């Protein structure tokens, strides 16, 4: 009974600037599974847009409108995660085309909501959907329904203040860790490195240097590490770097600027 209580389904959530992914593994299985079906779309994808929508007229969220469910009838909030790190926000605002930013709801805070509460609302809906999905898959694969333990990833150079705010939002959304406390938090490059160290097909050895580049939608994260012992995941962080405006949406921003000028 005691052992059963300690066994949990590990759920990893990469809450990215533009998209979010959820992976999970059951203790009775060696397969890492990804959620690839989402409300609001018939297309399979391992990513869901990191967006939440509120009613135009009221502060209260009228419907569970998030991810692919968002329509033109909602006020959309996007990229809100970056508001937890003010210096990052200021750089993006200074660099970006204002019209493009406004057109996709970047940094929009409907009703004056604080960023932590917006992230909480998104994570709450993500968690409820994910847990329902995972329980259904467990039943389909004859796996027992166990409690969930969450792992969250954050940008490599986030401050302790920003990480604390993300933990606060996740905790308020029902995310719990191994012992029922705060979820475990890893930097995005570290999470990728951990996966590499667990893969026997990747020829990493003690003494190797590893550079992990996470080219996301909104940001670019780079982590540099030295491996001490692969088998136990022992490594040393050499350096971390985050470019808050170096993600793939830079292409969208530049295209918007060119098209706006040409169509004037």
Automatic annotation (TrEMBL):
<dbReference type="InterPro" id="IPR043129">
    <property type="entry name" value="ATPase_NBD"/>
</dbReference>
<protein>
    <submittedName>
        <fullName>Uncharacterized protein</fullName>
    </submittedName>
</protein>
